[in-house]
Amino acid sequence: MADELVVWKDDFLVGNSVIDGQHRELVRITNECWAGYRTGGIIAKVSFLKAIQGAVLYAKTHFATEEELMRKARYPLLAVHKKQHEDFAAEVAAQIRVFESEDNPDPAAFVEYLTHWIAEHIANSDQKYIPYIAKVEP
Ligand SMILES: [Fe+2]
C-alpha cells in the first residue's frame, strides 16, 4: 500500500478556511494512522490505536464545527449530513472495540473504511453545502 492512503486533492476544498484546514488535518491524521501501523509488531497496534483515537477526537471537533456552520447557513440537508457524521462515529467506535479485542488485529478493513469514507464524504457530501456556507462567516 502507498505511503499516503488519502491524497489531498483540491476537489476537497469547500471554500471555508476553517473547514478546509480541518479537512487537511483529517487527511493528515488518517495517513498517520496507517504510518503508525506500518511501524510493525506490537508497536503497530499501540501506535495505530493512539493515532485512531486522535483521529476520532479530531473528527468530533470537526463535525461540531461543520454542523454549527450548516446550522447558521440554514442548510436544508443538515439532518441527513449530521446522520452521516453520527453513523461514521458509531462505526469507527465499533471497529476500535474489535481491533482492541484481537491479539493480532489486521487494520486493513478498518483503514479502508476510514480512507474511503473520508475521501467520499469530503468530495461529495461536503461539496453540497458550499453555496449555503459561502454566505456565512465561520
Ligand atoms: Fe461533513
Task: Give a structural overview.
The chain has helices at residues 17-37, 41-72, 78-101, 108-125, 130-133. The chain is built from five helices and no strands. It has a domain at 52-138: Four Helix Bundle (Hemerythrin (Met), subunit A). Helix 3 (78-101) runs antiparallel to helix 4. The model has no long low-confidence stretch (mean pLDDT 87). Helices cover 72% and strands 0% of the residues. It has 138 residues and is mainly alpha-helical. Residues 66, 81, 85, 121, 125-126 line the site of fe (ii) ion.
User: In CATH terms, what is the architecture of the domain at 52-138?
Assistant: Up-down Bundle
Q: Give average pLDDT, whole number.
A: 87
**Helicity range:** over 70%
Radius of gyration: 16 Å
Helix-strand sequence = HHHHH
Q: Using the coordinates above, name the CATH class of the domain at 52-138.
A: Mainly Alpha
CATH topology group of the domain at 52-138: Four Helix Bundle (Hemerythrin (Met), subunit A)
β-strand number = 0
Number of helix segments? 5
Shape: elongated
What class would the helix/strand composition place it in? Answer: mainly alpha
Portion in beta strands: under 5%
Q: Largest beta sheet, briefly?
A: none
CA(first)-CA(last) distance: 37 Å
User: How would you name the CATH homologous superfamily of the domain at 52-138?
Assistant: Hemerythrin-like
Identify every distinct bound molecule in the structure, by name, code or SMILES.
fe (ii) ion
Low-confidence regions: none
